Amino acid sequence: MPILKHAKKKLKQDVKRTTQNRKIKDTYKSLVKKAKEENSPKNLSSAFSAVDKAAKQNILSKNKAARLKSALAKHVPGKAPVVAAKSKVKKAVKKVSKASLAAAKAKTTSGTKKKPASKK
Asked: Residue 97 CB: number of other CB atoms within 10 A?
C-alpha cells in the first residue's frame, strides 16, 4: 500500500481507470462474439461501434480494430458479392488508366522538341 499522499491518489486513479477500461473491453469482446455467432447486420453494427470506441480510447490499437472489423465483415452473409464487384471495378480502372497513359506518352514523344534555353 502507498504511504505518500500522491501515491495514494495515483492508486485511486489507477483503480478507477482500470474498471472503466475493463468495462469497455468486456463490452466489445461480448459484442464481437455475439456478432460472430449470430450473423445479422444489427449485431455487426453494434460490434463495429464498440470496437471503434475501444480504439478511440486506446484500449485497442487502430490496426487490431481494423483486423477485427475486417474479420467480422467476412462473417456476414451477402457481403462477398460487394467485395467482388469492387475488385472488378478496380481492375477496369487500372486497364483504362494504362491505356490513357500509353496514349499520353505517344503524344509527348511524337511532338516537337523544345529548344534549349539560350545562354547569356
From this structure: 10
Answer whether 54's CB lies under 8 Å from 28's CB.
yes
Whether residue 53 contacts residue 28, with contact meaning beta carbons closer than 8 Å, is answered with yes
Domain chopping of the chain, boundaries: 39-77
- Dist CA 60 CA 67 (whole Å): 11
Instruction: Report pLDDT for 56.
Output: 95
Instruction: Walk along the chain (120 residues) in steps of 10 and give the mean pLDDT of each run.
Output: 95 97 95 90 92 94 94 74 55 66 68 64
DSSP states of 58-100: TSS-HHHHHHHHHHHHHHSTT-HHHHHHHHHHHHHHHHHHHHH
First to last CA, the chain: 83
